[in-house]
Amino acid sequence: MLFKRFLSSVTRTDVQHFTKILSPPSVLSTLQNAPSAELDIYNNDWMGKYKGSSTTVLKPKTTQQVSEIVKWCNERRIGIVPQGGNTGLVGGSVPVNDEVVISLQNMNSVRSFDPVSGILVADAGCVLQALTDHIASHDHIMPLDLGAKGSCQIGGNVSTNAGGLRLLRYGSLHGSVLGIEAVLPDGTILDQLSTLRKDNTGYDLKQLFIGAEGTLGIVTAVSILTPPAPEASNNVILALPHFNNVLPLYMEVKRQLSEILSAFEYMDRTAYDLAVKHGQGRALADDEIEGAECFVLVETSGGKREHDEEKLETLLSTLLSASNPLITTGVMAQSPAQFSSMWALREGITEAVSKEGKAYKYDISIPLSKFKECVDATREQLRSKGLLGDGDGMVKAVIGYGHVGDGNLHLNVIATRYTQEIQDALEPFVYEFTASHRGSISAEHGIGLMKTHALQYSKSDVSITWMKKIKALFDPNGIMNPGKVLE
Ligand code: FAD
Ligand code: MLT
Ligand code: ZN
Q1: Measured in angstroms, how far is the CA atom of residue 93 from the centroid of ligand 3?
Q2: What is residue 282's predicted lDDT score, i.e. its pLDDT?
Q3: Residue 263 and residue 250: Cα distance in Å, rounded?
Q4: For residue range 227-274, what is the model confidence (pLDDT) as tens digits?
Q5: Probe ligand 2: pick from 47, 146, 354, max atoms within 8 Å of CB?
Q6: Does residue 297 have its Cβ closer than 6 Å to ligand 2?
Q7: Ligand 1: distance of its center to the CA of 228 in Å?
């Protein structure tokens, strides 16, 4: 990698210095005789696709410690990878070479929660599920939810501008994050930990850190607006005979459920079958899935259970009694356990994919009407190259699922192993398809290491030039997550 020429490797002297800033258990280094296997979880990404060779992992407990470490690294030109829960899906959270990993896992305290405003201020290393649990007792929920909630951290969520399953209802983190505290690449602490809903005092710097993927600094704390917990939630899985019914169904569901609709999630038949095969959530009965080409999970969240259930039941009965029904079946959760297990079916697809094989994961925004065409065209592309089928080095399945309400398709290509031939068949094919529909090559997962070469499919030259100027302004020495987002 080119940037390696400009950056220094960590030395024993550096490690000795870090040990003065942090207590010894917070420094993990092979240069201090830690077995390299202990660093594996920090050097390897969630998918087992990207692998770094860092010798040193630092786990600060305070913003001041982060600042001192970063200042030293900047002076010594040592590359830094900020790491949260390491659940990212684009290779952004692990080193490319031997950058030092700064793990936020020990910065995991809630700083404050105001039950009146619903504003939560938390250290960046707080795990999303822990924050959800913390505010549940105050009848609030986090404005975002994702399958990785048990491991991902709020700092990682903000740094990737994670979307997830609640974006349809609560919008993106660009709206709900009210403030951040960050350590800039020279070690300066930027305190923008505002708890104000309204603050029009010039440039909104925090927005730059939302989705910066650790390339502009290290987020050390987040202030976020959390909504009140809905009084009642319910969900239903709808089986559809054709993909073409998804759009009319979405329109009808929005029309009938209006303000109580909180999620509209899509999975094609292959994705559903894979989730069931790997034991994710509640499988529908055989007669319920007969003839189904795809499925939609609809969630409602509202203020009155009887009212919401009545609306959902009316929706189901009008859908099923139509002369040309859009759905073949609708299965409504009858208990909290069923509610969770229906969600587990959709949320568990990522896990099922990783159990099935090695995944090429594309996360794109394209017009809803193109979801199926994209999956079919990709499958055909692989077939035409002789790469689809059983056997070593072949693609086992091509699946589509995602957040219909957000126009976000997850196109996953599952192979027995990663190969150059499959990679070449998929790229630039998928990116060209996306660009031809003026889509985005990254709807919610980010650019990381995976898509730096493809940024131009979604960003103009002018945009990329200004992104580079911003990066150079914040990080003139290029130490912060080198090789990520921008080439
Ligand atoms: P990491 O993976 O550790 O890091 C991600 C990026 O952020 C890296 O570039 C890293 O350098 C940077 N970073 C992390 N912490 C900081 C910090 N404190 N300061 C600066 N930079 C930082 N994503 C979605 O958008 N929607 C989903 O629905 C979704 N579902 C998922 C389900 C599963 C099962 C899995 C495994 C992943 C899923 N993801 C999803 C992807 C991933 O979970 C999110 O991107 C998540 O926000 C990453 O958080 P993390 O703490 O694991 O960050
Ligand atoms: C999802 O929607 O399930 C996540 O973004 C993870 C994935 O794409 O697999
Ligand atoms: Zn997603």
Answers
A1: 18
A2: 82
A3: 11
A4: 999 999 999 999 999 999 999 999 999 999 999 999 999 999 999 999
A5: 146
A6: no
A7: 24
Nearest to 44 by CA among 99, 94, 98, 101: 94
Q: Judge: domain 232-349, CATH 3.30.70.2190.
A: yes
Give yes or no for a contact between 126 and 109, defined as CB atoms under 8 angstroms apart: yes
pLDDT digits (tens, 9 = 90+) for 140-193: 999 999 999 999 999 999 999 999 999 999 999 999 999 999 999 999 999 999
Distance of CA 436 to CAs 41, 367, 429, 430, Å?
38, 11, 11, 10
Residue ranges of the chain that CATH labels 3.30.70.2740: 357-472
- pLDDT for 3 equals 63
Ligand 1 atom closest to the Cα of residue 151 is 52
Token pair, residue 10, equals 């960590």
Residue 375 near ligand 2, beta carbon < 6 Å: no
Out of 49, 87, 89, mutate this one to test ligand 2's pocket (max ligand atoms within 8 Å of CB): namely 89
Burial annotation 40-52 (CB, 10 A radius, 16+ → b, else e)? eebbebbbebbeb
Ligand closest to Cα of 164 equals 1
Give 277's Cβ-side CA count (13 Å radius).
14
Atom nearest to 82 CA in ligand 1? 11
For the stretch 193-222, what's the b/e string if a residue is b when 16 or more beta carbons lie within 10 angstroms of its beta carbon? bbbeeeeeeeeeebebbbbbbbbbbbbbbb
Q: Is the CB of 350 under 6 A from ligand 2?
A: yes
Residue closest via CA to ligand 1's atom 26 equals: 164
pLDDT digits (tens, 9 = 90+) for 289-308: 999 999 999 999 999 999 99
Q: Yes or no: is domain 2-106 CATH 3.40.50.300?
A: no
pLDDT score of 2 more than 70: no
